[in-house]
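Pipeline run #58 for the internal structure catalog. This entry was flagged by the ingest filter as a single-chain record with no existing model, so it goes straight to prediction. Upstream metadata was stripped on purpose; only the residue string is passed forward. Reviewer on rotation: M.T. Logging verbosity set to normal.
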Amino acid sequence: MRDIFFLFLIFVGLTSCSKSHEEPLNEIAISAVKLPAKSESNANAVYDKALPPEIQKKIIKEASLRFETNDLESTFNQIETAIKANKGTVQNDSEGKDDNSVYRNLTIRVPSQNFDAFISSVSKGISYFDRKDISSEDVTEEYIDLNSRLNTKRKLEARYIEILKKANKISEILEIEKQISIIREEIEAKEGRLKYLESRVSESTISIEFYKTIAQKEGVKISFGSKIWTAIKSGFFSLSEFLISIISIWPFIILFFILAYFIRKRFKRKKI
């Protein structure tokens, strides 16, 4: 009898222990739903910044050139040869004319490692640049920071997914899924920014404007001849409009002449 009572006490003790262990687990699952404090995220970000020391610098290179040329076609052919030699692409090509010049504008993208070679090829034979702006922006720090924050968010997302697998209550599942959705949006935004930086770093943008000045005498001759021809056409159109306007009011003209005739005839009778 004593043995049976002793076994009963052991069973009750084990049951109470199992219940006491279940309650903390539920508390952990509920508390895990909340996002970590900013200080914890920042600490993780700083820790994740310890990237490999051999990481290359991320430099965005850009250039803007403007110069005069005697032959637009020859200059374009030279630029086109430089583009092909340096594996570049033409992003935009436009041309036009104003009162003093004929011009052409190009926007070119070349691999960053070929940037200097391309600028050197284009600059051959040019004695003077109206504008030659070359800039480089170091985005290494932003790149590393984005990478570290992205890694932190991915780890956080993985933790929430693990918690989601263990969640039992519908309220907990909905809250965890909400947090996962927020984290996923942040991850996608950072991934998009990283891709943009990588694109700008891998390919440099060069804007080139070259123009040919129209000779002043030639411009005067063309302008003078154009003015004469315009004046002749304008006079002809004015005369045509005048004749048409007269024809359109012919009844009033006839009436005027009839009235003038009778008035003149009446004055003649009075004089007699």
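catalog note: The chain has a mean pLDDT of 78.
catalog note: The helical segments are 2-31, 38-48, 72-85, 115-123, 140-166, 170-202, 216-248, 250-271.
status: ready for reviewer M.T.
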